[in-house]
Automatic annotation (TrEMBL):
This is Fucosyltransferase C-terminal domain-containing protein. Belongs to the glycosyltransferase 10 family. Residues 3-67 form the Fucosyltransferase C-terminal domain. The keyword Zinc does not apply. One of its GO terms (cellular component) is membrane.
């Protein structure tokens, strides 16, 4: 999980998402609205696409190995 300390501030991207990449993880990101101007959307899971944590959990739980590898 990569949640920024502040949300909706254009360009406010800290080390959190990069630390996940360096660790070999697929980050679930919540932060800058314009994150896709800096990081390709295929490289992370955007928490904003899920209305609830339950929907996010179901998505992660049911993600295939192939889908995980492509992110």
């Amino acid at each position: 999980m990569c949640y920024e300390n502040a949300r909706d501030i254009p360009g406010y991207i800290t080390e959190k998402i990069f630390d996940s990449f360096f660790a070999g993880c697929v980050p679930v990101y919540l932060g800058a609205d314009n994150i896709t101007e800096h990081i390709p959307k295929e490289c992370f899971i955007d928490k904003r696409e899920f209305d609830t944590y339950e929907k996010l959990y179901k998505y992660l739980k049911n993600m295939s190995d192939e889908e995980y590898v492509t992110i």
